[in-house]
Amino acid sequence: MRLFVAIVPPPHALAELSAAVEPIRAAAPELRWAGRESWHLTLAFLGEVDELVLPPLTSRLGRAAGRHPDQDLAVAGAGAFPSAARARILWAGIDADQRGLAGLAASVAAAARRAGAPPPDEGRKYRPHLTLARCRQPENVSRLTQALASFAGTQWTARSIHLIRSHQSSGAPQYEELAGWPLRSSARPG
To answer: Taking a C-beta distance cutoff of 8 angstroms, is the pair 46, 3 a contact?
Structure first.
């Protein structure tokens, strides 16, 4: 099964981003736009994972989540991979304590590796983002990144991480949450 670990933004953050993206979406119909329901902040992409790995993976991810505090985040700005001039992916940025968020992502990747599901992109610099659109071939999306450059959503607090399964189909992938774990401060009794 194809898996990734992510933070899912709250509805109000997704609504703000959707309102900012809608005008540029109409101006670039040639891109494959991700639907609002699929926007997430990937901590670790795991790729194909054998079902036998699921029990140790869920146990280790729960422990990893419990070692990190809630994350104060906001969607802000935009960019493209590998560059705006030759983009394959158009993304919205994340305003956060970058060190804390990168530490959480590294912990999640280490937990996956120890469980037998090493992330194929482990070792790459962590770049938190929400994928907005994919390009069928390299495109210049500079006008789109400029249109979203000043976007700054309302801050929100991520209190959990989620293990998500991606079901590939002829259209856009469908996501199914398999499990979720609270981050440290939200795991304490009230």
So the answer is: yes
pLDDT of residue 189: 52
Q: Where are the alpha helices (DSSP H) in 48-182?
A: 54-66, 98-115, 142-148
Report which DSSP code applies to 38: G
Residues 6+ apart with CB under 8 A from 73: 7, 9, 41, 94, 95, 96, 101, 155, 156, 157, 158
Class assignment of domain 2-187? alpha beta
Strand order across the beta sheet in which 156-158 lies: 32-33, 129-139, 87-95, 71-81, 156-158
Which is it for strands 41-48 and 32-33: parallel, antiparallel or unpaired? unpaired
The model carries a pTM of 0.91
| pLDDT at residue 96 greater than cutoff 90 | yes
Residue showing tokens 């590294």: 106
